[in-house]
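Aim 2 progress update. The chain analyzed this quarter is reproduced below.
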Amino acid sequence: MEPTQNVVTPARTPTMADLLKVDGEFAFRLNETRAAIREDSTLRLHEELIRNLDSLRRPIRASYAPPTEDAVLRYCLAARAKEEMPPTLFDDAQRAYMRQPDDYDILLGNLIPKDFLDTAYAELARQAYLENTNATADEDWSVFLKMRKVMGQDGLSGLPTGLPKLDEKLGGLRGLTFIGADKGVGKTSLVLGMALAALKARQDLAVLVYSLDMAKTRIYERLFCLESGLDHRTLFGGVELSPQDRAVATEANRRLTEDILPRLRVVERDFSFEEQNSYDTNEPTKPVRKGLTSSGIRKECRNLMAATGASDVLIVIDLFQKMDPRGEIADSLARDHYRLDLLDQVRKASFVPERPHGFPIVVISEIRKDAAKAGLDRDDLKGDGRMASDADVVMLMWPAGNATGDVIPTTLRIDKGREGVVRGDVTLWFDHTRCRFYDTAPTGQDFHHDNKIEPAGARAAIDPLAE
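Predicted C-alpha cells:
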C-alpha cells in the first residue's frame, strides 16, 4: 500500500467579504491592539477604523473602492483582497499614512503591504534628511548613499547637453546654471539644443521652457531647424522644398511629434494683471501684474509630470531679466532678489534622493552693458552679484575674434562650477542659420544631415510639410 502523501492546499486569497467579517483578520487585529494604545492619536485612529469596518459590513459592497474615509484602510483591504484599485488610492494612502505612521503600524501591523511601507519609509527618510530632523548623521547616511548611487548613472551626474566636450567638463546639467552672453550670440539656441539632447537621452524627462523674451513660435521654428538640420530660410522662407529636403523635414516632424513635443511645454511671458486682495475693506482692490511665482512654477512642473509620466523636469528660463515679479517692485535690486528667491524655492521643493540638486534649472541672462565682448567672467552677468554665488554653474559665451559667415567659432567659458565641474574654455561652432552648436568644427555637408540648400526662388510661400 502506497504511503499517503501530504497534499498542500494553496492559500486562498481572501475576498472582501472574508476581510469584513466580525471576526475577520482586520477586526481581530484592531481588537488585539487595544492594549498597546498609549497615545490619544492612536486611540482616535483606532475608533475611526472600527467605525469604518462596521459601516462596510452593512451591506458588503462589491466595489473596488470601499466606502470608507480612511485611505490607508481602503488600500490595505483592496490589496489584501487583490481587488482593482482606483489609480489615486496609493498616493492618497501614502499621504494619510505619513501623517501618523506610528499609529498605523501599531493598529494594522503586517496587514499593511510591504511595498507600501517601503515607499512610505523612503519618503519619510527623505523628509527627515531635507528638514534636518534626524538626531545624528548616521540617520542621514542611507539617504545620502541613495543619492550618490543615483548620481553618476551613464557616466554623468546630470543631464547630457549633446556636446560631448562640454559634458566632459560639466558632468552634465544639474542644479542651477546661469548662461550669460551678449545679444545675438546664440544663448537660446544653445539651451534649446541642450534640452533637445536631454529629452532624447532620458525618456523619464520633461522640459518646461519659460520663453519670456520671444514668442514661442520662434522657439518652435528653432526646434524644427535643430531637429531637421535644415536652415531657417529653407524651412520657413516661403520656398518650395526639394524632394530630399521635404523627406528630411517630414521625418524630423515625425520624431518631434512622437517623442519630443509630448514631453515639452513652452510658456510665454504673461503681461496680464489680477486683482490684489486688501485686508482693509474700505480700501479698493487694485490690479497687480501676475508675474512668476514659485508656487506657479511648481504647479506647472506637477502638471507636466502628471501629463507625461516624467519623473524629472528640466526648467529653462529665457531670460532672467524678464522674470516679472508678482505685483510691482520698483527697485531693480529687490527684483533680482525676488527672482533668485523664487529659483531657490523651486529647487528646494524638488529635492528628492533621485534629484539631490532638485530640478535642473538653466537660466539665460544678459551681460552688463559695460562688459567687454570677450573674456567674460561671472561678474559680467547683468544683475545682482548674488546670481553668481547662488548658481552651481556659471557659463559665459562670446564669438571668437571678428569671425563672419554662417558658422561662427564661439568660446564658452565655464567660470564657476561645483561638485567636480572642470572650469575652463570650450570652443564651439555656432551655425546660426540652423540654430545649432557643435563642439567639433563642421566640415562639408556633415553638419546639416547632408541636405543641399536650394537657392531662394520667387515662388509663393508654401507649407514645408504640405503635400
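Residues 52 and 68 are 6 Å apart (CA to CA). Residues 114-131 form the longest helix (18 residues). These observations will guide the mutagenesis experiments scheduled for the next reporting period.
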